[in-house]
Amino acid sequence: MNKLFSFSKLIRLPNLLIIALAQYAMRWGVIYPMYEFINRQLIHNFPDKITNPRIMKFQVSEFQFFLLSLATVMIAAAGYIINDYFDVKIDRINKPGQMVIDNGIKRREAMLAHLVISGIAIALAFFVSYRLELWHYSLIYAACAAGLWFYSTEFKKQFLTGNVMIALFVALTPFIVGLYELHLTVIKYRVLTLPPFEVNFKVMFDFIMGFSALAFLINLIREIIKDISDMEGDREFGCRTLPITLGIETSKNIISVLIVLLMFVIGYIQEGQFDSSAKISFTYLLLFVQLPLALLIYLVQKARTPVEFKTPDLLSKLVMLTGVLYTLVIYYSFMHHA
Questions:
Q1: Which end of the chain has fewer beta carbons closer than 10 Å to its terminal beta carbon, N or C?
Q2: Which helix (H) or strand (E) holds 245?
């Protein structure tokens, strides 16, 4: 039981559940209601020509999507393992009480787990991609697995490079859902015999790209916050992270600028919602995203020592979760107006 608990801690089980939630939220909270909206629009505009009430539907089956999501989660789990494997010495300084490797899990066991989990994940991604005739998309999973290895061994220690890499990997979590689904849907739609009717796939793609961009920004912010928290151990082993290179105060200002940028982008979205009377969406973003981001700026500017950045780190993770849950608002909006 202790070994199982240590392993769940090593792979950051709560984080993996959030990753799976994000992908299913994108599928059922964004793509599905948009499909239903289009279906009802088609029936309304062409009642004599549409015989199938659900002409627009998922092209990736539930089982196939489960395997793709599982592969995503496994790649992330393998990334956490290899990161801790190469960070043993640094973690003895930064978080000695939270170490798992050499304190419940042996190093050789961690390396074996990383290789097995990565291998299974890539195999699952290739199997599903091949069945969907999109085998080349499985290379994304292989590239992520390789990227996480090189992040842990090299890029994590470099100025800003590792932060951007992790933020990009996280941004791929929602993006890859749309990549598979919309690719197949567009292909199928092109062969349908329908009267001229523009199905705006661009709206769907814009939603997914928007989520991915926001995920990139909030994770870049969080990565810099984490680097400040880990300065002591990182400096000891020659890392050139942003706070070590530029100092805490400059890093705090960079974080604040990125948060303001994120708030501005969300505010631009809210402006359109306000004009269209989308009150529920506007209010949700204001209360559960914008206000926590404003609080995050305050906490970041108030913090003086690396230890004091633990609370901003936790708050940034909470904003990520409320961002994922925003898909419930999107679901309601499209189903209500469909």
A1: N
A2: helix 242-246
